[in-house]
Structure formats: structure tokens, C-alpha cells
From TrEMBL:
PANTHER family: AGAP001581-PA, DAXX
Species, as recorded: Plutella xylostella
Top-level taxon in the UniProt lineage: Eukaryota
Lineage: Eukaryota, Metazoa, Ecdysozoa, Arthropoda, Hexapoda
Protein name per the record: (diamondback moth) hypothetical protein
Length: 66
């Protein structure tokens, strides 16, 4: 026994933790891509001089991101 767990329990715990890590990595990548895209679109929106048009662009960007 290792730390109160059998070898099989340690293997099972390790497999569950690996699966959780994979899911977290996927979620992190999704969030990072969304933020990078949002940052790029925000920078592009600065070329729009009309405040109302730019507001509509920013509002649409946030809706897509959320």
C-alpha cells in the first residue's frame, strides 16, 4: 500500500486525474483562443470612428465570446 491506497487504487486515481487534466487543457485552449480572438477584433474595432457603430461591434464581440 502507498499512502493508504492499494496499487490498483493509485492507478485508478492517476487515470482519473489524467482525464480531468485533458478536459482542463481543452477548456483552457478554448478560453485562450476566444480571448485572443476578442483582443484582435477589439484592436480592429479601433479603426471605426463612429461611436455607435463601434459600440454595436463591441457588443456583438462580447456576445460571441460569452
Amino acid at each position: 500500500m502507498i499512502g493508504g491506497q492499494t496499487k490498483e487504487e493509485v492507478i485508478e486515481t492517476n487515470e482519473r486525474l489524467r482525464a480531468v487534466r485533458v478536459r482542463l487543457d481543452e477548456n483552457y485552449d478554448t478560453a485562450k483562443k476566444a480571448l485572443v480572438t476578442l483582443m484582435g477584433r477589439y484592436s480592429e474595432s479601433k479603426t471605426e470612428r463612429n461611436v455607435f457603430t463601434r459600440y454595436a461591434l463591441l457588443k456583438a464581440m462580447i456576445k460571441v465570446c460569452v
